[in-house]
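Morning F.,

Quick status update on the modeling queue. The single chain you submitted on Monday has been processed. Sequence for confirmation:
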Amino acid sequence: MFNKLKEQIGGHWQQISRALGYAKSERRYILIVLFCALTVAAIGVAEPLLMRHIFDSLGSKSSLDQVLITAAGLVAMAFMKEAISARSNYLTWRTRLSIHQGLLSATVERLHRLPLENQRREGIGAIMTKLDRGIQGFLGALSEVIFNLAPALTYLSLAIIVMLQLDWRMTLLVLAFAPLPAIIAAWAAPTQSKREEFLMHKWGKIYSRFNEVLSGIVTVRSFAMEDYEKNRFLSNVGEANQTVVNGVGFDSKIRAAQNLSVTLATVSAVTFGSMLVLRDEMTLGTLVAFIAYVGGLFGPVQNLTNIYRIIRTASASLGHIFSILDTQDFLGDAPDAKELKQVKGEICFEDVHFHYNATHRPILKGINLRIKAGETIAFVGPSGTGKSTMTALIQRFYDPASGTISIDGQDIRSLKQQSIRQNIGVVLQDALLFNESIRDNIAYGRPDASFREIEEAAKAANAHEFIMKLANGYDTMAGERGGNLSVGERQRIAIARAILKNPPILILDEATSAMDVELEAQVQEALERLMLGRTSIVIAHRLSTVVKSDRILVLKDGAILEAGSHQGLMVANGYYASLVNRQVRGLLVA
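Structure tokens below.
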């Protein structure tokens, strides 16, 4: 049993030691805090001795002078203790914030680079809740372990030594009660730790759902589900809060039991000590000192008995943090990865197969394709046939199960991912704008761009005119996800952003599907200006937008079914022609 406990503590402490690596720059301050804590503990041990001196001096002729001198010493020690404690508190918070910054920096950086399926599987709300509560839980536990453990050990050691010098019988009596808080805490620790882990998981699920609801509030209102979602949220919060309330009740009983053991120790010490005083086997001052030590002794004892629970809590919190930091990056850059430079824009797929994991159906089956530099290629076909997957593979959000994808003859697995994406511009169906100014949204890919360059990009995207009609022009806030702008306005801002980035490769994924015909014509004109001279890949269900493409590839069941120009495919009268005929059926008069 003890070996198992030792192994568990060793594993928990290993995680804590790893987290402390984020406070290397604060090592000097940690040592100062520990020194301050030890000094305060030593002062705490000395105070009862001064009290003893005061009471033992009451019977002597010079008692008043001695009492005044000793009282002055107590006041001086109190000032010293408070001054040291204040400095220690300041440095403790500085250290906590430094560790918080280090962990936050590491986890946020990692979140930006995690495989996409991780974020889709857990949900952004759950990840952020887990991250925040994990870091806060660890920092709270850290303060207990680092800044309370050493002072507690110091106080206990010094106090026991002094107490044995004063009277060994009283010392043994008091220490007989010392294991009681430890036994009570050890019994309660598993229940408390399980509760902490349950709450961490529960709050993560609650806020993951809440994040989804707020992100899709239009859908919620469209189905008149506001009350349902509110009640669902409050019900889940109520369950979590009930767990907290039950936990507070349980902890209160544990604390009461521990306090009762302290009371028993104090009453026993007072009773036995009074008998010794009446027999002249102990001075009144010594009894007063012992009573003071009893009050001061059980605080550190309780701190020590809580160490295992605190370490488990810290370890559970760190487990959530390190689950983010240690997620295997299946798409990490190769050690000798190169920068993608001077891009012409030729893209090749060679016998590419792909599925999202072993249990999913194949998405792509043996794709072979060469896209020439500067060529405009359109992908069409039913939903789920792999059109967007192919563009995701080009950006290396995923790697193919087999086969290779190359840009300008270089296997993209031999290139740095960031350099690949820096050379690709993307305009999606749902253009994401940030709650910043329109100027900042256009310059998102090039924060150092001048205002003139931003303005030129907006003009090329047919966006300048409507921007100037806004209340604050280019300084107008776009709103969350661009909510202050219409669909067409958001799309033209996204196109301006791609134009300003000036990438040699362009991906347009259903960039005009959500627009009416008149608006689509304006945006299509901006897109054609953007595609000029670039390797462009267009994904579209509205086939009128792909007619001018150099080649149209028809994907079905994960394979290229047909390829050719619009005219050639219409003459062939195959699957593509049937798609076109379905879209125009009823619009043409025979």
